[in-house]
Amino acid sequence: MPRMAEGRGRTAAGLIALTYGLFAGGCVGPTVPPPQGTSSDPGAALRGEYLVNAGNCTGCHTDSENGGVALAGGKAIATPFGTYYSRNITPDTSHGIGVWSDVDFLRAVRQGVMPDGAYYFPAFPFPSFTLMTDRDILDIKAYLSTQPPAARENRAPDAPFPFGVRAVMAPWRLLYFSAGPYVPDPRQGPEWNRGAYLANAVSHCGECHTPRGALGALDNDRRFAGTKSARSGIRAPDITPDHAEGIGTWSADDIATLLENGMTPQGDFVGGAMAEVVKGTAKLTVADRHAIALYVKSVPPLRASGAPGS
């Protein structure tokens, strides 16, 4: 399996660390300098657009329900800890990323740290995006810089104390965050590794389809096993090859077809958040959709119910 950001420690230790983080203060960035960015080449924006589609960036960073401008943020993201709002990632110089350097953007996406050193909450899936390559991250920035700026102010989370306090993220990160990038598995071929990279880093499938612990970190021992009854009300199916609760009866072509047009082998069509995701994966190459399918078919069979997989 590729190297993933894995949780460390038990819930009790996490609660102690949370309390310590609140009163120790210190919402600051990492002590290790982030990698230095380089200027993007002329093809960067086109590659970035492809990655934005693969990662459903527009879907998350657009308040479509309220007629929001594309990529201007404000979309409500419900979690068990409160509601968080996606941020403005247009090139607006006041509320967006218009004055960010390459280093600022790399640090935000790979390390979950704002230009001022404050921490992002994991409603922004930096624990998955950390696996992306520097070039892919900067290609996304190059594409975003070509979009119209929108002067929409970022909205603070509607979360009770302490879950709206960014300093709390300091101990959380010590327990649950491991910085990338993705390291290919030498035991696997290029197609499998491409699929693993797309599924785990760019498209961050596990952010919805993997159960979370008491403090909101992904339980990577149960990657893709589905979220049966999340307290936020969001349900995502088991997408492991389990035959009872997962997609074990699906072929790789079945998975690739769903990523292309949203249709399951039973002739149904996905809805909700997955329908939004398919708008992006439909724009991927046939080869990339099949690479994702190949990888997903290879993961261990698991069940959201916790019963043994098969």
Describe this structure in words.
The chain is an all-alpha fold. It has two domains: 12-37 and 44-176, no CATH class; 190-298, no CATH class. Helix content is 36%, strand content 3%. The chain contains twelve helices and two strands, in the order αααββααααααααα. A two-stranded antiparallel sheet has the order 1-2. Helix 1 (11-24) packs antiparallel against helix 7. The longest helix is centred in the first third of the chain and has 14 residues, at 11-24.
Portion in beta strands? under 5%
Distance from N terminus to C terminus (CA atoms, Å) equals 19 Å
Low-confidence parts: 3-39
Tertiary shape: globular
Estimate percent helicity.
25-40%
Radius of gyration, Cα only, in angstroms?
19 Å
Structural class: mainly alpha
Instruction: Summarize the helix and strand pattern as letters.
Output: HHHEEHHHHHHHHH
The largest sheet, given as strand count, sense and whether it forms a barrel, is: 2 strands, antiparallel
Mean pLDDT: 86
Number of continuous helical runs: 12
Number of spatially distinct domains:
2
**Biggest sheet: strands side by side, in what order?**
1-2
